[in-house]
Protein 1
Amino acid sequence: MIEIRVPKLNNNDASYLLVEWIAKDGEAVREGDPLVVLETSKAAEELAAEADGVLHRLLPEGADCSPGQPIAQLHSPNTSLDAPASATPAALSGFSAEPSTGPVSTSASVAPGVRAETAAGDIVVTAPAQRAMEERGITLDQVRSLGKKLIRATDLDALAPASGSLTPTPGPLTAPAPTTGTPSAAAEASGAAGAAGEWVREADPGDLTGGDVAGGDLVDREPAGGEVVELSRGQRRTAEVVEKSHREIPAAYTVIKVDVTDALLAARGLTREHRVLIGVTELVIEALGGLREQYPMFFASPVGGRAARQATAVHVGVTVDVGRGLFIPVVRDADSRPIGDLARALSEHRKTAMNGAFREDDLSGGTITLTLHTDDAVILAIPVVFPGQTCALALTAPQAEVVPQRDGELLVRKTVSLGLAYDHRFINGRESAEFLRTIKTALEGRRHDGTAGGGN
Amino acid sequence: MTVPSTTPATEPAAVAPRVAEHLNRALHDLLAADPDVRVLGEDLVDPYGGAFKITRGLSTRFGDRVRSTPLSEGGIVGVGAGLALAGRKAIVEMMFADFVALAFDQITNFAAKSTSMYGRPVPIPLVVRCPSGGRRGYGPTHSQSPQKHFIGVPGLNIFELTPFHDAGALFAEMFALAQPCLLFEDKVLYTRRVYRDGVVDDLFHYELTSSTPTLTGGGHVARVFADGDPEPDCTLITHGGSVHAALEAMRALLMEEDIACELLVPARLHPLPELPLRDSPGLVCVIEEGSEGGTWGAEVARLLYPRLWGRLQRPITLVSSADSVIPAAPHLERDTLVGPEQIRRAITNALG
């Protein structure tokens, strides 16, 4: 089963309007088929099916929905449909069904759009009241008899414990993750929750049909250990990449110090000349552009563990994280474009990171990665080698240091740490140092007027 | 005007309009009803229709009563005040509230003083609209909430749009005062829907309390309360732009900690109207997005202390944004501006 969640469509709106379902409820749809029209404050957006499946809507037309909220499910065509329909009464009545919270939200964080989720859609029980009900053996039916919609702990004082049910509900309560278990098991679980106000532990993981095993495993069986927080979609993607890297790439690391005193001055001149911000990062990208022929293995892509395909161009992935997740947009053709163009491309990527959404094109095709560590307290950072590449550079912010001269004078210079994490199957320490030194020479040979001097 | 009938089976009327649409509609109605009204501002004229599209369609419909002006906030407000002095009603748009600093002199020294320094009361029906507030990643000079700088200027009124108050009624109230008014409009609020029929969501309701006639007047105050209207542990007071942050904090406090809050939202920030406070309001907490120091909240507290003295168990809690310029990077901006988490923390700390 695939859950269809509302993507973040723009920066400005906290919620969007679900204008129209294009696909019918219960209809079999193909990947890419348009499903639904969402309206932001500025535009209408169509969402397409991510895969083949049978559509099960969770929200009616005309409802508001917020980014991240599930609005529909796609079931594999051979599962029965009525099961999930009854599995999420809260979602059907317009409340968002947060996968990791139970019928009563006990989340400690204040997530946007946190909705009260009532067991049967008619009353709202606060978390302290919920705990008091468990302790005192009070049932939901008793609570309903109070005739209130909102139930707080103090409201329970009017109630005696249910006769003969002084034993609290056995075991710690854990909400079933809606996405685990077979649809029918989940339906039974949540159905029971809706009817009796109790909910059961997750279904037997052995019965899982879809690809949601990990989600099920994440559900904490011992609530005493605190809340389980699911990663955002972006962070999940990051997690997959670094896991793969860690599993497959035997990495080693070399780091050198580079004097960028002159390079910084040169960068200021270049900034004026090209009317775009140029700093050490841009100079490193430019330097990388000239290194492919001399160091082909550093830009190659592993083919199995014993061969590598050489790159035909230098495309540099650069890390960007403005607080909305880590992205590695790619600056293309560093070997054939002037530095002004490269700087502009990077600047565009930064703007996208702040204000928009990257396209898949922006993020793919890198032949080498440059990770930036802009906090000026960072002296060393070891990047993860991106799967499909053989190495990743790490660049820190410039730091000032005092160097005694022969004549006793003191000279202040600016340095950065330039590191290289490399796949040791393809690159050895000696080459890594040579590669770094070549970049160092290019940076240190920068003259104040901005031209590339020294080097090779 | 025909609307293409591609809209689906939902009844469009069932969906409340977004605040921006609501405000735009109110301006249309106002210009249609009152031929004296003029609208001035930068890039107002169609097809652009203003930076936030609040004036969309006005120039097409009302011609030169709606004018785009040169980029000079002092000049625009001066012209608006002059129009008002000469008997028209003027609405002036600042593209961003941050720029109203450029018109400070015209507002405080010309418009506000003109009401009372000619030996007889002179009506100055002038409204300066100021799109304010952050949380959009616009950086230090396009994200501010400068309401506090205009508090305590004789003859000047500060209003703020809320999702509860009818914008048309607010314009009527402001023009009826016959004094210059600043109308702050939170940019994030523009994209949210107005609340109608007393319903906020599944858990909260609201009502507009009728104002008790006081010397200063001041219209209706919106009161938001949990279902069943329980005696509040805490009374929150805020302005339109922080309503949603306050509501989120209220929801979390109620659902997770059983703390019931009541929220009061005046549309008029200064002079402050009579607030419908209970005899035992619990903890009183004033929330605002403006930066710390010399705040609106401090002014509210100054007015409430004598009234509540003896009935307060704790000092009034003031929650404002950090004493900092507003960063452009969203994660840093989030830490700087008042959000639900800061409000919740302030309240649990004060009650704990």
Protein 2
Amino acid sequence: MSLWRIVYKSLRQHTFSTLITGLSIALAGALLMSVWAVKEQSHAAFTGLTGGFDAVLGVRSAKLQLVLNAIFHMEESPGNLALTDYFEIQKNPNVELAIPIAMGDNYRGHRLVGTIVEMFAQCEYAPGKRHAVKGHGRIFDPTAREALVGSFVAQKLGLKRGDVIHPFHGLIFDEKKEHSETYVVVGVLEPSNTPADRVIWIPLEGIQKMTGHDPQTASDISAILIKLKAGSAIAGQRLSLMYNKQGSRMTFAWPIGQIMAQLFNKIAWVDRVLELVAYLVGCVATASVLASIYNSMNERRREIAILRALGARRSAIFSVIILEAAAIAGLGMLASFFLYSGIMMTVASIVRAQTGVVLDPSAFHPVMIWAPLGMVGLSALAGVVPAVKAYRTDVAENLSPIS
Amino acid sequence: MSALEISDLHKTFLSPEGLPQPVIHVSAFELAERNQVALRGGSGSGKTTFLNLIAGILKPDAGMIKIAGREMSALSESERDRLRATTIGYIFQTFNLLQGYTCLENVLLGMSFGPGVDREFAKALLKRVGLSDRLKHYPRQLSTGQQQRVAVARALANRPKLVLADEPTGNLDQANAREVLGLIRETCGENRAALLLVSHDREVLGQFESVKEFHEINHPVTAREAAR
């Protein structure tokens, strides 16, 4: 009968405390892995997700606000640009593609974004990938009141081709602010796992000329998405100099990934706090392994004495306790992967709904190796305390009363 | 070769007041191979301490204990553990079965610290003690007599040269006691193991041809008495 068999028997004898302790390890392990995975994945997703553009040109404001608004469809628009600004940058030799967008309306809480058909016909949101329309749908006619619905919105609101939608004024849904126009859904976009999935696309003029909007700003746009020509570093620097240093009316937010990375740097302390909390929870969980086994030592003194009387060495008893602590942690960490999947799926659905960014709950991350190893190792280390107590058990004293 | 040889064995404990309390002083004791001897002694006379010293569970303050030709007192603790596992079988008054283990597992556990697990021999031993239909039963599912039978099978699991039995029938009724005692004596004989049994029960002691009074071989003396 191997030591593992003795460990198994012991765990079975203390099923309840094993389950509770294992569960605390599972929760701690899942929390630790989730914190790391969400941090790493969201960092990679937000800094790598540019929608296929290199820069955003908008009214003079914070670069981060421009990027969040124009690329991720979050935050309020900082203000409008004149359409002439679009024509001007479109002609710039450093620019390969410029796409104007206009915002200001919603349909049941989901933003309507006005743009031009080149957004779908020419823009690659990832190398070799363009936004495609599902089934028999098509891109909207720029002169008609037609809408192309992002996949996430379509799924959430149950929109399909042929449906008629009634836009509402503003970015926040208010039933009282319904516009009089209606738009016909002519297509649903294939999922792209980008923020484009969570908005409704309509022709640029649709937003500009919606009833109730200020006629004086009817030709304005919210921002311009820009793809620079090859060698974009130099092109970007030139445009940055031109708009940000020499000009004072507009802001050229470039490069998008770096601007998002700055956001993460600003909130890095939150990451550190979360990590610290996760580490502390891990420590508390491993301490619970120690407490659970240590508390059982009194009732197990006789059992240990019997094993010793049968010939078990002190080192074997010590090893059994260490292995038991490691086994509880090991079982807990196995369970933690199920909890981790649950947490990640929940977090991913929230992040997707809020930002359009897709996190992959099944993606591998090194934390999945070092967290289980760390928790098992730490628990085994915690097992040393009860193991020493077991090691020191007086055999004669605990076997039977002396006659 | 003797199964057990003891000479000038001393063991002293400290009283709660911190005073030395001699418990064992055995000048000489010998048990021949396959021999069966009973020691009669009252409660608190040091019988269990004597057996624990022989089993290597307690370390003597002085003296020599030789088990099947190997001197126990010259061995390290882990070597004593090994010798106990391979050469000695121990039957306790309170059975000392592990409650989370089945009958068969209790016997196998005894083997695992000895020369190795022999499942068929373990089953044969349990069959011999009349428990072939109780292999997968847990101790709590057995009567006290049956539990002591499992303990007998476990004590013989490693084919020991010496079996120590500490009041093995103390917790059994008269009928069971007679039956278990007979079984211990028979199985020790069948397995060529010497048997040293301690008891204060006249009926038990009456079954043995050789009965020694423990107080005749054990003469613990205090330092003051020794000085006189």
